[in-house]
Task: inverse folding
């Protein structure tokens, strides 16, 4: 149904970013998002670039999170 589709497509993205914030911590997450937008303005966003920049800011391996949410 349309409602189920919307919940999956739009809701899943928000839930992923909540998980990413929880993994990185609020302060690092906020800095990462600002820098990501600045670095990638007017460019094509990719999951690979998102993961790479997030890992730089958190100093952690986000592979399990991205495999669970983005690259299943």
Result:
């Amino acid at each position: 149904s349309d409602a189920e589709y919307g919940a999956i497509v739009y809701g899943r993205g928000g839930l992923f970013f909540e998980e990413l914030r929880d993994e990185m911590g609020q302060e690092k997450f906020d800095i990462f998002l600002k820098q990501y937008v600045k670095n990638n303005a007017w460019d094509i966003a990719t999951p690979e670039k998102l993961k790479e920049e997030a890992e730089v800011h958190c100093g952690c391996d986000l592979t399990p999170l991205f495999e669970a949410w983005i690259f299943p």
In short: The chain is about 80% helix and 0% strand. The chain has one domain: 2-69.
